[in-house]
Amino acid sequence: MPRDSRALTRAARRRADAHEDLPYQKAREQVIVIRQLATEEEITFEQAQAIYDDPLNQLLCETCQWTVGMICPECPGCGCYNGRCSGWRHREYMHDDERDDLYACDECGGDTRTGYDCQC
Q1: Sign of the Cα pseudo-torsion (44, 30, 7, 50, in order)
Q2: pLDDT tens-digit profile of 82-116?
Q3: Between 110 and which of 1, 62, 68, 117 could a Cys-Cys bridge form, CB atoms 3.0 to 4.6 Å apart?
Q4: How far apart are alpha carbons 42 and 44 in whole angstroms?
Q5: Angle, nearest 10°, between helix axes 45-53 and 24-41?
Q6: Is residue 4 within 8 Å of 11, Cβ to Cβ?
């Protein structure tokens, strides 16, 4: 894992060489992101690089920050278009508080899946 400017330069050059159309400056930015990922997740640089390079982890939308792996087969695109879709993949990436509100009735807050809690 690059720890200083020389190691960062070497890692960026290796990355730029490995990806033919990648300019050095962009490779350097990517190496910095990979290093941050490795530090945050407490994994090796190589493991973080594999995660970063996985096509499913590529950013799909700048606005909602969805990745390609978050695409739901029931929806037309990213999180910007989906609203309250009940697709299975959305639940995988939701926070607990978002999951609780997914089936809440807009009027009374009851559970709309069963209809028992809904007072409308």
Answers
A1: positive
A2: 655 655 566 666 666 665 565 666 666 566 565 55
A3: 117
A4: 7
A5: 120
A6: no
Reduced to 3 states (helix: H, G, I; strand: E, B; else coil), residue 17 is helix
In the block, tokens 């493991």 appear at 47
Going by the DSSP 8-state scheme, the letter that residue 111 receives in this structure is B
Q: Rounded to whole angstroms, how far apart are CA atoms 88 and 27? A: 35
Q: Which residue has the tokens 């990745």?
A: 67
**Rounded distance, CA 96 to CA 107, Å?**
21
Q: Is the confidence at residue 49, as pLDDT, over 90? A: yes
Task: Give the three-state DSSP class for 67.
Answer: strand
Query: Within its chain, how far is the Cα of 34 from the centroid?
Result: 14
69 φψ region: left (φ > 0), alpha (ψ -120 to 50), beta (else):
alpha
pLDDT given for residue 16 in this prediction = 92
Structure tokens at 24: 């050095």
Of 94, 71, 92, 95, the C-alpha closest to 81 is 71
